[in-house]
């Protein structure tokens, strides 16, 4: 009861803070020049921020103290945000000491097949897939659960690690049939390589992923999934379930006894439904009573990790952020030419140290 009251108190404080700074939360970087956003900041903020080096901004975003004198209103906002934020750090003290004793499959135990799961996986994805798979495996074993359903399974990269390395039964639910077909092809490629190092007897004992094409729109569909005979109880897994899919899975976890654990990392929060039932945000009845609302812009901001920007500023990698300024400048040009072109989609351009604005516009 004490914990519940503490959580509710934090929600109330967060709601009040969002109401005060709604103007700031709703800013869209794309409109920086169009809406003259710099001039909307309090004058004292502008004076202080203007005097900072990019490295100082990185230090400020990281939460560390800086050498500059800042306005009291700005310091209060920073302190409130730090106090009310949920820690992103993983509590390593919660990791079971005997996790190494959890069994792996024959592929997972074979040193010659260590890099087998890296094929077809982009460098950016490898870290998050490996970390997600490790956490899911730990949670599954501690929950005495041997099966998982992976929602938005895509090309099946996460499923292959969970199945072939960690020996879990898996079923992937994906709405795009071409991704499912490609995932099955990748499964066969992995087994073809594994067969060179494992006996036919060991290969015959391997668990294999199951792929299912389905577009989820309601909780009723989750109750009617055609589960295989090996999947009676399961965990829910989702690496970047988009928009309302995350809330849908959370509700299923709460209401279905077959679900033993859930491990999801949501994305595309701007696509959460906020005006129609069932709400993607807010899900909590208590938060609804507070009248909590988040604009489309503020929900999109929530998709971006502040650590990424802080790290680049601290390392002096300002050029990585130059692309954002170019896009905002291009938006200004487009809107002045024709207001109907506001927020028009343009081609995504990769960062380059030598890129000029003229070059950026030509590529866009």
UniProtKB/TrEMBL annotation:
Domain of life, source organism: Eukaryota
Residue ranges constituting the Methyltransferase domain according to the UniProt record: 124-273
Protein name: Protein RRNAD1
Source taxonomy: Eukaryota, Metazoa, Ecdysozoa, Arthropoda, Hexapoda
